[in-house]
Amino acid sequence: MNTLNSSSAKRIIIIYNPISGRGLATKMAIKAEAFATQKGWQVLANVQSEYAGHIEKELAGRFIDETDLIMLIGGDGTLRELIAGLQTLKRQTEIAFIPMGNANVVARELNIPLKPQQALKMLESSKVACIDIGILDLNPKQDAHSIYQQSLIFLAMIEIGFGAKIVHLVNQLRLGKLSRLYQLWGDLVYAIAGVLAFIQKNSDETELSTHNQQASSKHLVISNMKTYAKGWALTPNANCQDGLLNIAVNNKGSRLSTLMTFLLAAQGKPNSNKMTYSQAKEVILKGSSKAYMQVDGDPISFSGYAEVRVEPKAYNIHIPHEP
Question: Among 47, 62, 250, 263, which is most buried by a count of CB atoms within 10 Å?
Answer without folding.
Answer: 250
